[in-house]
Write a structure and sequence with these properties.
106 residues, four-stranded mixed β-sheet, alpha+beta, 2 helices, Double Stranded RNA Binding Domain, single chain, globular
Amino acid sequence: MQVQIHTDNHIDGSEAMFKWASTTVTQALHRFEGQISRLEVHLSDENAGKKHTPENKQCTMEARVEGHQPLAVKHQAANLNQALSGAADKLSKLIANTLDRTHSQG
C-alpha cells in the first residue's frame, strides 16, 4: 500500500510528522493492506491558524481499493491526532462495508 501525506501551509510538514501519519494510517488499515493500492492523506488547518475553534484541524483520506471507485472520508477535530484517527476509523468502516456489499452481491 502506497501512502501519500499532504499538508497545507499551516501544518508542520516535517519528516517526523509524515512518518507518524503514515504509521498511524498503515496500522489502522492493515487488514485491508492487500486491497488498497494507494492511500492519500490530506491534513489541514481549516482556520489557517487565525482563530481557535474546537474543531479546526481536518483530515481527508482517499483510498484506492482494487475493483472499486476511490473511497473518501473527512474528519474534523481539535488536533491532528484526533483528526487522523477519526478519518482512519471512518475509512476502515467504509472499506469494510464496501467490500462486504461486493462479496454479498457476487
